[in-house]
Amino acid sequence: MGEREARPHLEAGEEHLRREEWTQAEEAFRRGTAAHPESPAAWSKLGVALARQHRFDEAIAALREAIAINPRYAPGYSNLGNVYREQGRKDDALAAYKQAVEADPDYWVAHQNLGALYREMGRVTDAVGELKKATRLSVRSGSPRRGCFGPAASTLAVFLLIAAGLPALIRLLVR
Q: Other CB atoms closer than 10 Å to residue 171's CB: what's the count?
């Protein structure tokens, strides 16, 4: 079995994720990993479905499997960062997001996640830089996905940063 056999399960799992049907998504992605055990995408998506159910240890194990299969698979690192962030493990999340960016500097989702984490950490300048990169890359890719700031990212980034702290934003703009 291989990628072709896994594809219908991955598509079904994606639809379940979209509908927030976490258990059904998990089942579909498990069928995908069974059909194609060497698919980092299937393992990564399984990790997402498990994390949505707050089964973080299992999610981390699935995401590590995705990364073990392909150490250059940026979505695996980015999703791992999301799990760590959900757990409040900001240093681990930061390391995972940086690995995602290193694995694929054009993966805008990792830049978006990194920017959001920097904002949470009060690192306004770093947040702005990453959100700008995410915007440029998502617009350049021509296929913004759910969660992307899209063309309005600069405006949205300013509003997010205002929420993070107006004095920090003013210092950044005055530079």
A: 12
- Reading phi first (left if > 0) and then psi (alpha if -120 to 50, else beta), residue 165 is in left
CA distance 175 to 165: 16
Q: Which amino acid is at 139?
A: V
Grouping H, G, I as helix, E, B as strand and the rest as coil, residue 53 is: coil
Its pTM stands at: 0.81
| Of 95, 91, 170, 87, nearest in space to 125 by CA | 170
Return the structure tokens found at 46: 């399984």
Mean pLDDT to the nearest integer, 71-87: 97
Instruction: Determine whether 14 is exposed, middle or buried from the number of CB atoms within 10 Å of its CB (0-12, 13-18, 19+).
Output: middle
Helix, coil or strand: residue 145: coil
The length of the chain is 175
Q: Are 78 and 96 in contact (CB under 8 A)?
A: yes
Q: Give start and end residues of each alpha helix (H) in 55-165.
A: 56-69, 74-86, 90-103, 108-120, 124-141, 153-164
Q: How many alpha carbons lie under 13 Å from residue 130 in its C-beta half-sphere?
A: 24
Tens-place pLDDT, residues 132-144 = 999 999 887 765 4
Give residue-wise pLDDT tens across range 28-39. Answer: 999 999 999 999
